[in-house]
Specification:
binds magnesium ion; DNA polymerase, domain 1; alpha/beta; single chain; 9 helices; Rossmann fold; binds 6-O-phosphono-beta-D-glucopyranose
């Protein structure tokens, strides 16, 4: 195994709750009520695709021009940025810091494949940017998760073959992206109906020895 590619929201830090809060406020302002069950569908999905899903859910797909939709998405992001403004290294999920150190010491490359345009800001706030050998810029992608493009791009940026890499995700769309790109998939708390090569309940279970053991088994 030569690299581990991380999702951000829900794997490195628990920003999913802030995304939900900001979307709930925005949706409510245009008369759409969303709950946590619906929110599961938004995990791993880009900002604009998330807005489209919310509009569809509320039966308002054709009610806004592109310009208005851009403004709505921007409005959600401003709210979200306020919620993440006070993030600190204490917000790194359990086990992640140690796991990143283990990977670094073992000479295994580390990548970020997050749909979030706020990714670099969050890594800086968590003070873990220095661990990353490559970060995919989601603005340059043609398709979002579940399309494999983002994980395929991460391995290509590292000049590695997907089968030599593992990807870690908490979202259904993200696991599908990893599987389709041909990486070894690690699912953190993902539902049973989606296949993950190694399924764990919490980031605390992430260790290099554990990952290597499961990775070898697949080969
Ligand atoms: C993903 C989140 O990581 O990033 C989604 O799981 C979010 O909920 C997406 O919509 C895009 O994030 P941002 O920060 O660019 O709006
Ligand atoms: Mg996620």
């Amino acid at each position: 195994m030569k690299a581990v590619i991380f999702d951000l929201d829900g794997v490195i830090t628990d920003t999913a709750k802030y995304h939900f809060q900001a979307w709930k406020t925005l949706a409510s302002a245009i008369g759409i009520q969303i709950d946590e069950t619906f929110n599961e569908q938004l995990k791993g999905i880009s900002r604009m695709d998330s807005l489209e899903r919310i509009l569809k859910f509320g039966g308002r797909t054709t009610d806004f021009s592109n310009e208005e939709k851009n403004r709505l998405a921007e409005c959600k992001n401003e709210d979200y940025r306020k919620l993440i403004a006070s993030m600190t290294p204490d917000d790194v999920l359990p086990g992640i810091q140690k796991f990143l150190s283990e990977l670094k010491e073992a000479g295994i490359k580390i990548g970020l494949a997050s749909a979030s345009k706020n990714g670099p800001f969050i890594l800086d706030a968590l003070k873990i940017t220095h661990f990353f050998d490559t970060i995919v810029d989601p603005a340059k992608l043609k398709k979002g998760k579940p399309d494999p493009e983002i994980f395929a791009t991460a391995t290509a940026q590292l000049n590695l073959q997907p089968y030599n890499c593992a990807g870690i995700e908490d979202a259904v769309a993200g696991i599908q992206s990893i599987n389709e790109a041909g990486l070894f998939s690690v699912g953190v708390g993902v539902p049973d109906e989606v296949h993950a090569d190694w399924r764990i309940n919490s980031t605390e279970a992430l260790t290099l020895s554990g990952l290597k053991k499961h990775f070898k088994k697949k080969i």
